[in-house]
Amino acid sequence: MRFSVKSEYAVTAVLDVAGHADKGPVHVRSIASRQAIPLKFLEQVMASLKKAGIVDSIRGSQGGYVLARDPKAINIAQIIEAIEGPITPVDCITDSAEYRCLHMNGGVVRDVWDDVKRAISRVLNAVTIEDLDRKKREKETSVMYHI
């Protein structure tokens, strides 16, 4: 299972907004520049994140994006689902295709895919933006250069 580059950009953008929250709303151009994300593509990503209630947009010259919720209340699964839809390793474990999956191989393979889905969800639900922001700051402060 591969997540799209759009999901990668979404997580990166939300982390950028969180990392600059103390400075007020973050302009989409600033995120695009700092993170090397194409502006038009990032605008689409941010619109999806806004629709999902992960970020809010503030209008005006001092406007930009802010987190809609506390960083500890936003996990990676929510961000990916805002971009990709439900996280499923194969189509036959979605509700709309469940009947087909149950009748293929007596449904035994579906159980494996369900286990995979639960494992992925468990990991992605456990990691919050607060966790990633803390790790990022720790890495930035632990870098030491010796001559």
Provide structural commentary.
- 57% of the residues lie in helices and 5% in strands.
- It has a single domain (5-142), classed as Arc Repressor Mutant, subunit A, CATH 1.10.10.10.
- By secondary structure, it is mostly helical.
- The N and C termini lie far apart (43 Å).
- It has seven helices and two strands, in the order αααββαααα.
- Helix 1 packs across helix 3, helix 1 crosses helix 4 (76-84) and helix 1 (5-19) crosses helix 7 (129-142).
- A hairpin with a 5-residue loop joins strand 1 (55-58) and strand 2 (64-67).
- A two-stranded antiparallel ribbon has the order 1-2.
* Radius of gyration computed on alpha carbons: 18 Å
Helicity, as a percent range: 55-70%
Question: In CATH terms, what is the architecture?
Answer: Orthogonal Bundle
Question: What is the assigned CATH homologous superfamily?
Answer: Winged helix-like DNA-binding domain superfamily/Winged helix DNA-binding domain
Give the strand content: 5-15%
Q: Poorly predicted ranges (pLDDT <50, ≥5 residues)?
A: none
What's the number of domains? Answer: 1
H/E element order: HHHEEHHHH
**Mean pLDDT figure:** 89
Strand count: 2
What attributes does this structure have?
mainly alpha; globular; 7 helices; 147 residues; two-stranded antiparallel sheet
